[in-house]
Amino acid sequence: MTEAALEKENKQIARQYKELLRISYRSLSNEDKKQIRKAFDISVEAHKDQRRKSGEAYIFHPIAVAKIVASEIGLDATSIVAALLHDVVEDTKYTLEEIQEMFGETVAKIVDGLTKISSLKKDKDVSQQAENFRKMLLTLNDDVRVIIIKIADRLHNMQTMDAMRPDKQEKIASETLYIYAPLAHRIGLYNIKTELEDLGLKYTEPEVYNDIHTKIKESKEEQDAYIKEFSRVIEDSLNQEDLEYEIKGRPKSIYSINLKMKAQNVSFDEVYDKFAIRIIYDSDPANEKFLAWKIYSIVTDHFRPNPTRLRDWISSPKSTGYEALHITVMGPKGRWVEVQIRSRRMNEIAEKGYAAHYKYKQGDVQDDHGIEEWLNKLQEALENPDANAVDFVEQFKLNLYSKEIFVFTPQGDLKSLPKGSTPLDFAFSIHTEIGLKTRGARVNNKLVPLSHELKSGDQVEIITSENAKPNINWLDYATTARARAKIKSSLKEEKKEIAEEGKAILARKLKAQKIPFNEKSVNELVVFFNLKTSLDLFYRVGIGKIDNQKLKEFANSRSNALVSYIKRKIKKPVIAEDLNKDEITTKYDQLVFGREEDETLEYKLANCCNPIPGDNVFGFVTVNDGIKVHKKDCPNALQLQSNYAYRIIPAKWIDSSQQDFKAVIKLTGLDNLGLVSEITQEISSNLNVNMKKINFESLDGVFNGRITLVVKNNSILNKIIDRLKKINGIDKVSRE
Ligand code: MN
């Protein structure tokens, strides 16, 4: 570079720096400015020999990132300092220790977080990317500013990618669409999210992007005319009310127009809501809501509203903090158009998200914005060792984009949950302990099943009980990642505990049968009962599914050749697994037949395909040999199914320990006050028992009851009968 060119560049750097200070959203103190100057000087010095792919001096990049952070996002001086320094440790001779010495611990921590994120190995592979994402979130250091500055960094890189190789552009762009845009959305940086999406599309599908881009430019004039016409109609009425306001058009992003074109398979011209109309008004805090509805009423005086498209984000802000009133009306030329009504404050929150909350709420933003809570939830999910990285990211994104519902606690506090949430999700969102002790729920004062889908506006009360705990069915009712993870880990714990007890019981019982309790006999038992692991065996003993009778059968079989017969059939090495192993495999130990999968029948396994537990199978009724079970992909299956369809019965392997059975008990006694509640309490305090039906009659002081229970096994049922007999006033209890 020539001397003159260098001088010109230096001037430009100085100009950029001055602009950075000028455009800061927050007012900066003299001390702030001193720190920023220091960071700028260090950054200039550190990057002095580096140039970007485009040829310009590297320092333009950190300044640009700092400008986004300062102005578009509106973060504090600490963040501006960290943004200026964000690539220093990674790319130059400076160490983190030196940064800490010069700028203190907070800045050093943020820079450290940023350095860690960029040093994650980048890979095209989605699962690798997901894993990186997971790690990235783990390196947050509890400081959300790390992720926000990272988003700004990514935005500037996306804005300046032209000099890069096309394959690199595409890779970075798709990562941006996959991870950074959703993150920006969640943090409430809507403008940045939109820009990231548009840029993402520009590099992943350039033709599509350019096509829509050109068409938007072409239709701009028509759009402006439309907005003018709309304004003209309502201006007088708004002015009469002495309102300070502005009316703007808000074009839909290229990215979302493209989504719409694809989803509805329509052309650009057929996308009707290519822009919305935004009315931004001035208001003092006390009148904000009132004025929004006043403007709403003026708009709808002139244009017919579509009542199904009213969204009141003022009374119930989105979990990102977004507030506004949205209504779709039939505008000029008979076209539906969305009108967004927001105060200036709401508008700033919508555009700056996080930072605007600082400005308006004064207090600790981390509390009132829910970001901290969100990060905590994220952290919890991340620490769950069961979660696979791809699942995690998908679930995470699902939670980001799925529509939200708003429900109330009994105290009237508002909670936002993903659409489709149930009382269980609600319980776990309040507190894990409440979730785990959920016994039932009342929605709007009515008892509902735990599977009940909540709707916006519901008031939800969770009924807890010390004796309640999660059961396997809960996984069908819970939809949020958080609730499901908690339920799973609790079930696992419980199963381990029961298995521990079962192990001790088994040792005792084997001793009584004169069978040694060792690895060999445990292995034989696992095989005999068609199980996969010793844990499954102990668990079944623990819940009474494998009882004395069954153990006797085993003892008898040991003396004959059955064991070796079954072994041969199963053809699968079975290794006794240690209880410490925390993976609990799915296990299938019982075949059930019929459409309802509820019949247990005698059967034999076919020799041609040797099915093992868990295989997809069907039963075939033979002429002389009872039911033979074949694999669905058995070489003979097609021929059997086509020639003898009427002899095929559906069959399925199930986990018998998860099978419940129904039992009816009858009670008689002397009628007294509170007897019924005592009975039901006794039953409901018993774990693993559900009451399906209750019928009580009383005649002249004599009481008759009939209760249908769902229990896991006989021993539980007998225990209940014994306990009921002890209730004062009960005369007889028996099974029907
Ligand atoms: Mn950077």
Specify the helix fraction band.
40-55%
List each distinct ligand once: manganese (II) ion
- In the predicted model, the low-confidence regions spanning at least 5 consecutive residues are 362-371, 398-402, 570-586
Reading off the top of the CATH hierarchy, the class of the largest domain is best stated as Mainly Alpha
Query: Can you tell me the CATH architecture of the largest domain?
Result: Orthogonal Bundle
Mean pLDDT: 81
> Could you give me the name of the CATH homologous superfamily of the largest domain?
Hypothetical protein af1432
The major beta sheet can be summarized as: 6 strands, mixed
| Percent of residues in beta strands | 15-25%
Shape: extended
At CATH level 3, the topology of the largest domain is: Hypothetical protein af1432
**How many E strands?**
20
Q: Quickly count the helices.
A: 30
Q: Radius of gyration in whole Å, from Cα?
A: 34 Å
- Class computed from helices, strands and strand pairing: alpha+beta
* Number of self-contained structural domains: 6
